[in-house]
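User: Could you check the structure of this?
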Amino acid sequence: MNKLTPNLIVDRIEDVLPFYLALGFEKVMDLEHEGALGFVILHHGSVEIMLQSQPSMAADVPPLAGGANRSMLYIEVDKLAPIRKALGKTPHVVPERTTFYGAREIIVKDPAGNTVAFASKETA
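Assistant: Sure, the predicted structure tokens are below.
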């Protein structure tokens, strides 16, 4: 595993973003959703945080819409094959997919109900 990035699910990114910018984070990527910010990636040195709005999450991963789900661990890995094997028959939240930014993802819930996404930028 290479990197762990929290994806914090928020009602409106515009309400939360100033807090992180004041802490010195820099917005390095954003994506609009329904006329508002739907997703942003923030960096501060080697620290990365993603913010995603509830409406964007509902469109992106419908099984995670609503409810008490307020965060997701996003773990970048070199290859997904060892993760697939380790997960065995663990149900996926959505079918394995490729994101708009080219990462291949497997999203599951751990036994306590926490959402964990494993992502690889491998080409094969």
